[in-house]
Amino acid sequence: MLIIKPKVDFVVSVEAEITPDIADDLEKAKNFEVYYGKDKVKLEDLFEITKEGDDKKLVLDGDFSKVKWIGCRMEDGEIVVKGNVGANCGAYMKGGKIIIEGNADDWLGAEMSGGEIIVKGNAKNCIGCAYYGDMQGMKGGKITIEGNAINYIGEKMAGGEIEIKGNAGDFIGTEMTNGLIVIHGDCGFVGGDMKGGEIRIGGKFELMPTFKKSEEGFVGDINVGGKGVVKTL
Amino acid sequence: MHHMLHIKNGIVIDPKNGIKAEKMDIFVKEGKIVEESEIDKSQCKVIDASNKLVVAGGVDMHAHIAGSKINTGRTMRPEEMRMVRQIANKFRATVGRVLLTSPAIGYEYAKMGYTTSFEAAQPPIGALHTHEELDAIPMVDKAALPVFGNWHFVLKYVAEKDIEKLKTFIAWAIERTKGFGVKVVNPGGVEAWMYGKNCRNLDDEVPNFGITPREIITSLIKATEELNLCHSVHLHCNNLGNPGNFETTIETMKLANGFSNDKRQVLHVTHVQFNAYAGSSWRDVGSGAAEIAKYVNSVDNITIDMGAAIFGHATAMTGDAPFQFTLHKLLNARWSNKDSEIEGGAGIVPLMYLPKNPVHALQWAIGLELGLLIDSDKVVLTTDFPNGGPFTEYPYVMAMLMSKKMREKELEKVSPFVQKAANLPSIETEKSLEEVIHMTRDLPARILGLENKGHLGVGADADIAIYNLNPNEIDASNDYELINKAFRNALYTIKGGTIIVKDGQLVEEVWGTTYWVDATKNVDMKAIEDDLNEYFDLYYSIEKENYGVEEAWIKNPTRLVMG
Amino acid sequence: MAQKVICTFCGSVCDDVEFDVEEFKPKKFCKLGRSKFSKKERIKAPMIDGKEVSYEEAIQKAAEILVNAKKPLLYGWASTANEAIRLGVILTEKVRGVYDQCASVCHAPGTLAVIEEGIPGASLGAIKNRADLVIFWGSNPMEAHPRHPLRYSMSAKGLLIKGRNDRKVVVVDVRKTKTAKKADVFVQIKPGYDYPVISALRALIKGEDIDVDEVGGVSKEQLKELAEMMKNAKYGVIFYGLGVTQSRGRDRNIENAVKLIQLLNRYTRFVIWPMRGHYNVVGSGEVPAWEVGYQYAIDFSRGYPRFSPAEFSANEVLQREDCDAALVIAADPVAHFPKESVKHLKKIPVIQIDPFPNMTTLVANVVIPSAVYGLEAEGTAYRMDGIPLRVKKVIDTEYWSDEKILEELLKKVVELRGE
Fold first, then answer.
1. A20 touching chain C per CB within 8 A
2. How far is C64 from chain B (nearest CA, A)?
3. Residues of B in Cβ contact (< 8 Å) with A134
4. CATH number, domain at B472?
5. Subunit partners of chain C (3 or more CB pairs within 8 A)
């Protein structure tokens, strides 16, 4: 296990595509290349890194809200972020677990295909979405937000599960083809051009007018001949 | 820097000058190929080309490299731009998978030993945009072909059967757009698209004009020949992309009957792969390449380019707006369209050619069939970039044309549909290295009327490529992988006498020229002045005086005066 | 005597206007364009920290700021010429900064919709010639593009349409705007409900029924009428504005509208186009697209371009305190950006290039005045429909053009970086 603490207040954001793969070798971790503005630096230039035991685990201790791409493409192991985390956390993730004790930024778990992300605080926009130009968002795995999220949740989602315990904003499951989105609180627009999959909502929400009531709940979006289901929890 | 160069002991293939893999030296001074006697050997940089192939720089006569279409394509497809080709250093950062940024276009051509590329469809009112992008492409010489076939002035003069005015208008338009020649895209069909229709056959009537594609094409050939432009009419046929269209293509080619030109073809039919389908639907579609080849081989006034399809990503972008809409419906893909004043339109649709898809595999086969079955003096190698795929795959196409063995290997990977629907599996032809050099150098230069391009004779531009191949030793039929590899990264690319690529790496950035054709000398602009004023007043949204491009706005223009 | 010029105010880029140099008087302009082509207060001279300096000194200082920054933001570009924008993109690549332009606070959602679905559009001339149905959706040209209705849309005369009586005009908006008052049909929708209204129209046009009586404040009957009107048009156009891009739904509204247009073209001809604001905001997206592949929100910190609107748009960068210097050209973020963004701008070194003083001048450390394109400098601009026009120079000036300033700045940066 590595414990990673910021050494300085970051003047601009840091892009650190770190995964638990670096946990086994302190030297490797220290020399891992990260981007600090235009400068390519070593992880140890910006962070204090200590090793404790051999678990495939990273503990990020401190404010990582200006650190992006943490856990990007990770396949196994665990990352615990003690504070907030920056954008693109867990993007393209295939396996393993990320626990964020604070808040997450945009593009959490974007295009992930496996593994689990848990956010104890709030998250922002584009959770489990597809990056611009891509045809599929999240394909597998699970994202849980204990708090609230903002807009664009599970767009073009093709599998996996997103659960938001608080409220969310607009555009839940737009162009979704498969998978499950659960929102315990209130949210805005739901289901635009939804083709398949299921959305369950506990609170108030605004369904597109292009859904038809059925025994299962609401089915749509009829604009795309969709068989998506939206129902209350 | 213009050095004097002495390219020593290379094995030269220069089809135009009848040089067939001969060991000889080439001398360069002030950007031109010169006699040995012109060179001061003490001042001269010597390039040892022993046992290496020395040829003229490649000429791409049909690619979409600049202007609103490719740029909208880039905007639509950020996923294309995620492929990083080069981090900024002495040279610009470049990105792009198939669609490339302007610097990337120039650099990638240069690495491949290509030194000239023509933008194949310039929307006339967007000419200034096209030229801005051409000016942003380093390394190569370039030009743009403005699109005529649906322009209301053309339709009007065709309807009035007034060839004099049509000629005058063409001269005016090419001068105003700083264009190079007469490009025609789905004549009449794009005008019909303004009403949600198309002209798929040569005799379909163009709405409100009482004329047909047949008349438009014939009139434009006549006008272009009477103006004696250096390049012929360059035609994207009607009925593109539809099963059974090979018949329309042959019918169209017959419209050139009765026209002739001492120097060149009178009709260049472009990206014929997309117009060479037999059958009546996508279920029974087949190859019409053999029939087209038979016709082209039987006449001496027509040339074509392949428009080969390459497996992988591509983006369809043409002035054929109704076809693009059909493609959008067929693929359920993103779609951009632009109807342009009274000039025509354009469309863009992303696509991907998959080897296991029967239709895609057929398209791939047809492109190659055209290259194989048509006389090497009549068919140019293109992919209609980015419609059929990347121009960076030209080496693949070259190798495929030269090796039956390579084709057999590739055929194993594609849909078996090709076995029954295409001719490719049974074609034995293997083009020689000399033929493939011809199809990529002096033939396109001749078709375009560029006398100083595509060859290594004295007086030619010193655009030279040296490849790591010995033509006297290579057995292309078996060593196709060597061919494919060697043409991807030139040992040297020399542009206008400057070494710009060495060992496949960029070494110096140069800015080529932009050719434009001035045919205004032999026409009287007064003949169309009233019409221009009337149309600009009524149907355009900009003033006539603000229409077009001045030479001073172009970075490095070259005016070619006709007549 | 008045001579013909091209207006460099709004995205209409009217090229039929005139300017009398001796009298310094604009003619035929609308109110908005007239204001730019009249005598206005100018930035007198280059300044560093409020002290007047030479152009060379200001450029030296600006280059130092950019080269020393870890991640400079270079923002604005919508009111300058392509020649300057191109140098600006190359400059941003050189200093490995972030390029962003004014669209990121107005029409960039339209660009995202182009990524998702494309844009089936037309030039303004094609529209004036053919459109028998013009729909202004969340746009109000009577106030924002005053000559647009006359020249290109509402009452423009063209090939098939001989004037206002030959076409129907519909306004869809949240309030009865000046444009709405001139329309044949006004559809008032509840603020923030463009997206479901468009979804409902798509269903009705396809011949599907919807189970609700009203969507976004619009009755099903009225939606049906609008759907029929669209389907029965021979050539329709939707001109959308900031009412759609900068309210709830943003890019998704436009994406949905593009899907509506795709559907309509299965029945008739229909196009859609944004009512772009600044005279060359189109160029400020097109130029970087050909130079580096993207239109806006472009980060070069890794030495190659990357696009991410949620990370590299000016406001995102400023609010996340993710830049340590800024160059602002032909824009006024201090006046128009949210407070949190301005707060960070005040903390970092700022370079401004602009003909006119504005709120941003007050926070800028280096101020470089420039010539006014269309009046004092010549260059290329793209009208809202992408039609390129060469704006003219009719007055001599001591002020340097943006192009010259950036050319010198780029040279200085290359020199400082030792390349």
1. no
2. 20
3. 79
4. 2.30.40.10
5. A, B
> Is B539 part of a structural domain of the chain?
no
Write out the DSSP string of A142-164: EEEESS---S-BSTT-EEEEEEE
Half-sphere exposure of C109 (CA within 13 A, CB side): 23
Domain spans, chain C = 42-106+279-380+397-416, 108-274
* Residue A162: inside a domain: yes
Number of domains in chain B: 1
3-state helix, strand and coil shares in percent for chain A, rounded to the nearest 5: 5, 35, 60
Is the CB of residue A134 less than 8 Å away from at least one CB of chain B? yes
Give chain C positions within 8 Å (CB) of B542. 15, 125, 387, 389
CB contact under 8 A, C158 and B538: yes
Q: Which residues of B touch C93 (CB under 8 A)?
A: 88, 92-93
- Other beta carbons within 10 Å of A45: 14
On whether residue B487 sits in a domain, the answer given is yes
ipTM field: 0.97
Which structure tokens are listed for B72?
């909208």
Query: Which domain, by its residues, includes A132?
Result: 2-166
Q: What residue numbers bound the domain in which B466 lies? A: 4-56+454-506
Q: Domain C42-106+279-380+397-416 belongs to what architecture?
A: 3-Layer(aba) Sandwich (3.40)
Contact (CB, 8 A) for B70 and B126: no
Tell me the CATH number of domain C108-274, given options 3.30.465.10, 3.20.20.30, 3.60.20.10, 3.40.228.10.
Answer: 3.40.228.10
Chains that touch A (3 or more CB pairs under 8 A): B, C
The Cα–Cα gap between B380 and B303 comes to 8
Answer yes or no: pTM beyond 0.80: yes
Residues from chain C that touch B541, judged by Cβ atoms under 8 A, are 123-125, 128, 151-152, 387
- The residues in A 170-189 lying below 8 A from C, measured between CB atoms, are 170-171, 174, 188-189
For chain A, the domain total comes to: 1
Using a CB-CB cut-off of 8 Å, the residues of chain B touching C86 are 132, 136
Backbone angles phi, psi at B335, to 5 degrees: -145, 125
What is the spatial order of strands in the sheet that C25-27 belongs to? C2-5, C17-20, C25-27
Q: Look up residue A69 and give its amino acid.
A: W
Residue A217 lies in a domain: no
**CB within 8 Å: C310 and A192:** no
Q: Are B251 and B292 in contact (CB under 8 A)?
A: no
Task: Give pLDDT tens digits for B528-555.
Answer: 999 999 999 999 999 999 999 999 999 9
Mutation choice for C interface testing from A84, A124, A132, A171 by most C CBs within 10 A: A132
User: What whole-number distance in Å separates Cα of residue C120 and Cα of residue B148?
Assistant: 22
Record the tokens describing residue B194, joined without a space: 């303004």
A 60-79 → C contacts, CB under 8 A: 66, 68
Whole-Å CA distances, C6 to B155, B543, C11, C260, C394: 30, 10, 12, 35, 10
pLDDT in tens, chain C (419 residues): 899 999 999 999 999 999 999 999 999 999 999 999 999 999 999 999 999 999 999 999 999 999 999 999 999 999 999 999 999 999 999 999 999 999 999 899 999 999 999 999 999 999 999 999 999 999 999 999 999 999 999 999 999 999 999 999 999 999 999 999 999 999 999 999 999 999 999 999 999 999 999 999 999 999 999 999 999 999 999 999 999 998 899 999 999 999 999 999 999 999 999 999 999 999 999 999 999 999 999 999 999 999 999 999 999 999 999 999 999 999 999 999 999 999 999 999 999 999 999 999 999 999 999 999 999 999 999 999 999 999 999 999 999 999 999 999 999 999 999 87
CA–CA separation, B28 and B51 (whole Å): 20
